[in-house]
From TrEMBL, chain A:
This is Mercury methylation corrinoid protein HgcA. Keywords: Membrane, Transmembrane, Transmembrane helix. Pfam families: CdhD (PF03599). The keyword Transmembrane applies. The chain crosses the membrane at residues 204-227, 233-252, 264-285, 291-310, 331-355. InterPro entries: Ac-CoA_synth_d_su_TIM-brl.
UniProtKB/TrEMBL annotation, chain B:
It comes from the Archaea. Residues 8-37, 38-67 form the 4Fe-4S ferredoxin-type domain. InterPro entries: 4Fe4S_Fe-S-bd, 4Fe4S_Fe_S_CS, Fe-S_Ferredoxin. This is Mercury methylation ferredoxin HgcB. The keyword Thylakoid does not apply. The lineage of its organism: Archaea, Methanobacteriati, Methanobacteriota, Stenosarchaea group, Methanomicrobia. Coiled coil: none annotated. GO terms for molecular function: 4 iron, 4 sulfur cluster binding; metal ion binding; oxidoreductase activity. Keywords: 4Fe-4S, Iron, Iron-sulfur, Metal-binding. Gene3D superfamilies: 3.30.70.20.
Length: 358, 131
């Protein structure tokens, strides 16, 4: 789509004040209207495929919408303006939620990153919002001076600054685009619309990307372990990774303790038990070797799962920087000692096997 | 025990609050709730330090060392010999990070604590929040 950039601003002074301009003075010229790309509320099969690709991390940074102003339906000078990120999932969620609403959508350049993450790093931020308002000539397109932002854009946007620089009022809409029709109907967001939850569905949606992140090293570890110690060890490696990337997000609220690391240690410990039991009862091996093999499982699997669990903090909706920092200093050394001990034991077992001791 | 999230850097100066309601509107965790004369710090331990409240408070009544709670980003920064808060947030910087590469300087960890506690000139204060 073509982005309508560098429009000349209207010289209609009564519009600039945002007050009592007449529609005839500030109606959108036909050529201006057609210059604004049209979006629809329809989510096509191609859109859905794009969503799936984004969810599994294919072409991770390529799910972008051209930044700029779009029109949905047949907006006029009084139609609401919404802002979104140029990430296809964000944009599609917004436009599909606004089915039947005549409005404008101002897409900010967030480098293909969702609203909340982009707000956290400032790309969905005051400067970009001001830049887009100015570069699209929004002040000449609408008569009002109000722009509705997703609430999760707030960490990047200072409404007083936007107001000072553009005279546009920032209104924070609900967290979820699906609540927009109700928000538009009532003009307000209920407390529940303002809250971020992290239900099972949302947690599970994240698991493919989490798994893809570590799939290659996990596969490599599984193959190496298969040749060094057999299929049991190979399976243990896969189980540890699956526990950390799939089971952990799914079971997050149900695992005891608050810290991600301890939750991961608990989950990894549970996953390790059957492997430890299996390794402890390998026939024809001396007692010390069986014990050492079981210990390898009990040391390595929980530490790997706990590390992956700790890395899930960035995907959650509630982990604070201070808390994560504390966790890192508290538990990463423990994980490192456990993993190191497990690796040393595994190497000793491997050497013993190599030299025919076991 | 086993809860690293009970403390954070959130600070609230109730005396400066003009009860505009923005903090309650932007907080996704109900840390602030509307009060009769000033915002109520209802659930401080739920704060995830996103910085939305501080950034949108027109009178700088709220201060927080905002940043992203992403262990992957912090550990990656530390492994590269950088400070954990060096600005390499989890949503940018290195390709393959949670949100991939970025051409702009990440700012999520660069955000400095706002002018919390400092008086601002009256002309800098907007008292008609768009709630």
């Amino acid at each position: 789509m073509t982005n309508p950039q560098n429009k000349e601003k209207s010289s209609c002074c009564s519009c600039a004040g945002g007050g009592n301009a007449s529609a005839s003075c500030c109606s959108i010229p036909a050529d201006t209207e057609t210059a604004i790309p049209k979006a629809t509320s329809t989510i096509t099969r191609e859109n859905r495929l794009d969503h799936i690709r984004a969810r599994v991390g294919i072409n991770r940074m390529g799910h972008r919408v051209e930044p700029g102003l779009y029109r949905l339906g047949r907006p006029d000078v009084d139609s609401p303006v919404f802002a979104s990120a140029n990430y296809t999932l964000s944009f599609d969620a917004l436009r599909s939620a606004l089915a039947g609403v005549d409005c404008y959508i101002l897409v900010l350049d967030t480098n293909g990153i969702n609203v909340w993450c982009a707000a956290g790093k400032g790309t969905f931020g005051t400067d970009e919002l001001v830049h887009r308002i100015e570069s699209t000539g929004l002040a000449a397109i609408v008569r009002h001076r109000k722009i509705i932002l997703p609430q999760l854009g707030a960490p990047g946007v200072s409404w007083p600054d936007v107001m000072r620089r553009t005279h546009f009022k920032v209104v924070y809409g609900p967290v979820r685009a699906v609540d927009l029709p109700e928000f538009l109907r009532t003009g307000t967001a209920t407390p529940s619309m303002r809250r971020v939850e992290f239900p099972l569905r949302d947690r599970l949606v994240l698991t493919p990307v989490e798994f893809v992140h570590v799939a290659l090293p996990a596969l490599a570890a599984a193959v190496i372990l298969y040749f060094l110690a057999g299929y049991g060890a190979s399976l243990a490696a896969v189980a540890a990774v699956l526990a950390g990337t799939v089971l952990f997000p799914a079971l997050l609220p149900f695992i005891p303790t608050h810290d991600f690391s301890t939750k991961g240690l608990i989950l990894g410990g549970i996953v390790a038990v059957p492997f430890a039991a299996s390794f402890a009862t390998v026939p024809l091996l001396p007692f010390w070797a069986n014990t050492a093999a079981a210990l390898v499982a009990l040391l390595l699997i929980p530490s790997v799962t706990a590390y992956l669990a700790l890395n899930f903090t960035g995907c959650t909706t509630f982990a604070s920087r201070s808390g994560v920092k504390k966790e890192i200093f508290r538990y990463v050394p423990v994980m490192a000692v456990m993993a190191g001990s497990g690796i040393i034991l595994a190497i000793l077992l491997g050497i013993s096997r190599l030299f025919g001791v076991i | 025990m086993f809860d690293s999230y009970t403390e954070n850097t959130l600070q609230y100066n109730e005396e400066r609050c003009i009860n505009c309601g923005m903090c309650s509107a932007v907080c996704p965790h109900g840390v602030f709730t509307p009060g009769d004369t000033a915002a109520v710090l209802a659930a401080p331990s739920s704060c995830m330090e996103c910085g939305a409240c501080a950034l949108n408070c027109p009178v700088q009544a709220i201060g927080v060392e905002s940043g992203v709670g992403c262990a992957w980003a912090m550990i990656s920064a530390a492994l590269r010999g950088k400070d954990m808060d060096s600005g390499t947030c989890g949503c940018g910087g290195a390709a393959g990070s949670c949100c991939g590469s970025d051409t702009k300087e990440p700012s999520c960890c660069d955000k400095k604590e706002n002018d919390f506690g400092k008086q601002k000139n009256d002309e800098d204060i907007l008292v008609s929040p768009p709630v």
